[in-house]
Amino acid sequence: MADLFAKGEKPEFLFWVGCAGAFDDRYRKVSRAFTKILTYLNASYAVLGNEETCTGDPARRAGNEMLYQMQALQNIELFRQYDVKKIMTICPHCYNIFKNEYPDLGGNYEVVSYVHFLDRMISEGKLKISNPCYSNMKVTYHDPCYLGRANNIYEEPRNILKNLSSHFTEMRRNHSSSLCCGGGGGQMFKEAEPGKKEVYTERTEDVLQTGASVVATACPFCMNMITDGIKYKNKETEVRNMDIAEMIAVSLNL
Fold first, then answer.
1. What are residue 76's DSSP bridge partners?
2. How far apart are CA 93 and CA 71, in angstroms?
3. With CB atoms counted within 10 Å of each terminal CB, which end of the chain scores lower, N or C?
């Protein structure tokens, strides 16, 4: 973003990479896959690079309101300097807090989830998946809480997956009845509470009941927890956890 502004250019979108997209080895692959798609579409976007920091979402969920507001106000000031109007995210937690909570602090933006963007590109014919490599695989989808229940984004990811596979199947618990992966709300950063079973193992059992060979996710927390669940069940050779952006990039040979 700084390089473009130095040239007097302004991109349409700020692509917010997020903590997981920048630092988590697994989710970095999702960041790369999505940027390849953006480049393929010749989209107008930029990233903040070293200027990007956390949205403050984990701090707020864990109860540290002061740290959240410090982070948020710092970001809002940076966005003001770059005259940011549209933000695109690959993390539902970032999407939710930019869209629904930053406005309380004066940060008002058009916030776009990458699944909504990808679904629109497919429906407009700009993203043509003529030879999907998942077409003969049984694929299921796990609804992230902050896309589904929090923001009512249910159909867009399913539309994408039905373009990628002719064998899409739902889990027993889906849409608004979907079960959390167990990592949201700051849970991924703390020890498990007393109980008989981890939430992620319960959700992984829902995945395995479908008989799908691919479980698609659209959230870094979900990817982390469900991947752990697949490993816990010793099913790594039978079931793969793939992000929707990765599946599109692979199908387009990007």
1. none
2. 15
3. C
Give dist(CA 220, CA 226) in Å, integer.
10
Q: Which residue has the tokens 């997981």?
A: 20
Provide φ and ψ at 228, rounded to 5°. Answer: -60, -40
Rounded CA-CA distance 223/26 in Å is 9
pLDDT in tens, the chain (254 residues): 999 999 999 999 999 999 999 999 999 999 999 999 999 999 999 999 999 999 999 999 989 999 999 999 999 999 999 999 999 999 999 999 999 999 999 999 999 999 999 999 999 999 988 777 788 899 999 999 999 999 999 999 999 999 999 899 999 999 999 999 988 777 767 677 788 888 999 999 999 999 999 999 999 999 999 999 999 999 999 999 999 999 999 999 88
Q: Which single residue is written with the structure tokens 């989209």?
A: 43
Beta bridge partners of 215: 140, 241
Per DSSP, 14 falls in state: E
**Identity of the residue numbered 108:** N
Q: Starting from the edge strand earliest in sequence, which strands make up the sheet with 240-243, in order?
A: 167-168, 138-141, 214-217, 240-243
| Residue-range domains of the chain with CATH | 2-117 (3.40.50.1860), 129-251 (3.40.50)
